[in-house]
Structure formats: C-alpha cells, structure tokens
C-alpha cells in the first residue's frame, strides 16, 4: 500500500493511530497532515483564539442541526492556497516513491474527490476514524489546545457521503488495536 489516508474529526485519535502504524508496519511511512502545514504558516495569518477573519485559517461560529453552537475552521485565500499545497506536496512525496500516512480532517466527499484525483496513480486505503461524541468532547477538553466545539462540528461534516475502504472507532479501542486492524485490512487488499 502506497498511502494510508486517515480521515476523522479532531480528537478522534488519528495521530496516535499514525504513530502506532509507523511502529507496526514493516515499511517506512511518512506522516503528513494539515497540522504540519499550519505549523509552517506565519502566526499572523491565522486566528486560533477568536473569530477574526484572517487570510489563513480562523474560527467561524456555526449552529449544528440540533441547535448546538459549534466552531468551524474556515480558510481565507492564503489558507486555501496552503491546503492546495498540502495535497500537492503529498502527491509529490508519493511520486518520489515514499510511502505516506495522511492524517486529515476533510470536508466530506467533495474534498475526498480532490484527493482521489491527485492520488489516482497510487494504491490508497481510505480509512474513516470515528469516535462517539461524548468521548470527543472529553478528549477535546482534556487536550486544552482546541477551541471547544470544533470536534463535534467536524464529526458532523467530515464523513458526509464517504464510502471508506475501512473504518475504525476509537471510542473504546486503543490506537494500537486500530492500527493492527488497519494493517490486517491492508494485507487482505494487497
């Protein structure tokens, strides 16, 4: 498998699964995710505290279908450019023959189709990472580095209309057990 693509809301445990996969799999896999690109951006381009519209990324208050207030990350012009660069960089790494684990929070099937076009020449397993909302809320709060309400908003959005190759639910299953299940699925696909 050339690429393992993990999609799920913030605080579902994707990064922990990535680390477990890197330790578990015989081949070497690079970990790439939008968070790594956010870390490269000038701080002045983003607003991770308030709701000030920025050229990079910023929070926008939204309301879920049940009336719950939540926050959605919104991209300005520069943010969209960085997101495009992230996808293209991933494709370039794969073109160089590097195996990759993508750790992402995508906007449902619409954004997945952009990824599939870029990665069509590679063997990719698309994995949905799920977690129940009570656990998400608890994890988000305990992290202390996320705006409360973003994980729930993402959980309502990221899996929309996506038919995954495989799914894991981290509510009661460890990252290692999830990684083992993904590796087993990969062995059955190859």
Automatic annotation (TrEMBL):
The active site is at 35. ATP binds at residues 8-15. GO terms for molecular function: ATP binding; transferase activity. InterPro entries: CPT, P-loop_NTPase. It holds the Pfam family CPT. This is Chloramphenicol phosphotransferase. It comes from OCS116 cluster bacterium.
